[in-house]
Amino acid sequence: MLKALELNGFKSFADRTRLEFPSGITAVVGPNGSGKSNVVDAIKWVLGSQSAKALRGSEMTDVIFSGSRSRKQANAAEVTLTFDNSARILDVDEEEVHVTRRVLRSGEAEYLLNREVCRLRDIREIFAGIGVTTGAYSIIEQGKVDALLQSSAKERRLIFEEAAGVSRFKLKRQEATRR
Ligand code: ATP
Ligand code: MG
């Protein structure tokens, strides 16, 4: 379903870089420190990872390319995920869904849905219940298998609720009762 990933100024990706994921399995290989985990960080970042620590940094602006001996730092980081939505799995009536997150050195940040500015909540809503939100089971990182096996009944229930599509209704109920 994820068709492409475009990075610009994100972590070690100083230049605009586009990765395509044709159907089947894609493996990303490379020497230590070459940016493999940064690719995963980029996906998590767009899906709304709010904690800088989850992305292995301490400030939200730490994701911006910080410069190297031969290049000056970037002023902004931008990542776009392109999803194939022909099966309308995402609740958006488009064949393709583009989700962009952008952050400037000043700290200013925004999300775009199909190239129009939107709220983080809009992003969360279209992804809720399909198992791709951060913390869900779609990204299994180092140590995650262990953590799943050792999770409490309550934690495990949340994982099943996400998989079963219950969490999207919980999110909606939370919002309805807040008003
Ligand atoms: P390993 O095989 O060890 O897991 P990896 O391919 O996963 O390595 P990453 O952790 O993705 O490597 O990349 C780490 C590199 O990214 C480091 O060289 C680090 O300096 C660089 N990096 C991280 N954040 C930034 C940033 N904001 N600006 C520039 N470079 C960055
Ligand atoms: Mg790594």
From TrEMBL:
Cell compartments where the protein resides: Cytoplasm
Domain of life: Bacteria
Entry binding sites for ATP: P31, N32, G33, S34, G35, K36, S37, N38
Stretches that traverse the bilayer: none
Similarity section: Belongs to the SMC family.
Comment on protein domains: Contains large globular domains required for ATP hydrolysis at each terminus and a third globular domain forming a flexible hinge near the middle of the molecule. These domains are separated by coiled-coil structures.
Subunit structure: Homodimer.
Role according to the record: Required for chromosome condensation and partitioning.
Name by which UniProt lists this protein: Chromosome partition protein Smc
Organism placement in taxonomy: Bacteria, Pseudomonadati, Planctomycetota, Planctomycetia, Pirellulales
